[in-house]
Write a structure and sequence with these properties.
There is one protein chain. The protein has 255 residues and is α/β, with parallel strands linked by helices. It has a single domain, classed as Decaprenyl diphosphate synthase-like (Undecaprenyl pyrophosphate synthetase, 3-Layer(aba) Sandwich). The chain has eight helices and six strands. The protein has a six-stranded parallel β-sheet, sandwiched between helices. Helix 5 links the parallel strand 3 (114-119) and strand 4. Helix 2 packs across helix 3 (48-69) and helix 4 (88-111) packs parallel to helix 5. The structure holds farnesyl diphosphate.
């Protein structure tokens, strides 16, 4: 499916009509904790696997919607470093869906200027998935309409530990003076290094926690929680979240 053409980035602040039509409401980077596949299936007396399958349809739909709305970055929490603790058949279902999703949608990413990025230690996934991901990263590297960042085997504490280890390595080599380490050093060592700041973090399914997702990046993000279960989350819901974001008064600790 080819997306409708759009103007990249937020509307000109001096152009009122363009501002009114700016569906991003000024948000550049939105992340989503996609929760509730299991409960969606349970409510319909279906197996959990079907909830996840429906969850992938919601992913496809929201990636398209985010592109149409004009977001610069959409980051999705697809598999956490703690999700390995789920029953083996569920982990295997999720991996199977990931495989299928990348294979089925890589052409669409390319057709629509979507650059794929992965955050998290994805090299621990099955070799064939790592190869699929590496190929998709290569193929879409120059696309610049939107970045789709998928969090795989991701945990914020793990990400921060890896960043600290990388910085410690530079200290050891004498390349960085420990007294001069700044917040920028840490930001630059995170998996999200080249992405714009996280504006809005959405969680579906009514749970009110961050579950080890983007803990550093969310320091000044706006948070949006909805009771909607992930498989039912659609473009209208995304627009509602962005509208809410647009109504917030962001002070970043100032006044
Ligand atoms: C939470 O539902 C969802 C996940 C485990 C992560 C999201 C996964 C998908 C949308 C499918 C795979 C994604 C891609 C990109 C291929 P849950 O099982 O925790 O729901 P519950 O809390 O209701 O049990």
């Amino acid at each position: 499916m080819k997306l409708a053409p759009f103007k990249k980035g937020s509307a000109d602040p001096d152009d009122e009509a363009a501002q009114a039509a700016d569906l991003t409401h000024g948000a550049r980077h939105v992340a989503i904790i996609m929760d509730g596949n299991g409960r969606w299936a349970q409510k319909k007396h279906l197996p959990r696997a079907l909830g996840h399958k429906k969850g992938v349809e919601a992913v496809r739909n929201i990636v398209r919607s985010a592109g149409e709305i004009g977001l610069e970055v959409l980051t999705l929490y697809a598999f956490s470093s703690e999700n390995w603790n789920r029953p083996a058949d569920e982990v295997s279902d999720l991996m199977g869906l990931l495989r299928q999703y990348i294979q089925a949608d890589i052409d669409e990413f390319d057709d629509n200027g979507i650059r794929l990025k992965v955050i998290g230690n994805y090299h621990a996934l099955d070799k064939d998935i790592v190869a699929l991901i590496d190929n998709a990263l290569d193929r879409t590297a120059k696309n610049d309409r939107m970045t789709l960042a998928i969090a795989l085997n991701y945990g914020a504490r793990d990400e921060m530990l890896r960043a600290v280890q990388a910085i410690a390595g530079k200290v050891k080599q004498g390349a960085v003076d420990p007294d001069n380490i700044t917040a920028d050093h840490l930001s630059d060592a995170l998996d999200t290094a080249e992405l714009p700041p996280l504006d809005l973090l959405i969680r579906t399914s009514g749970e009110l926690r961050l579950s080890n997702f983007l803990l550093w990046q969310a320091a000044y993000s706006e948070l949006y929680f909805t009771d909607t279960l992930w498989p039912d989350f659609d473009k209208r819901e995304l627009q509602r979240a962005l509208q809410s974001f647009g109504d917030r008064d962001r002070r970043f600790g100032g006044r």
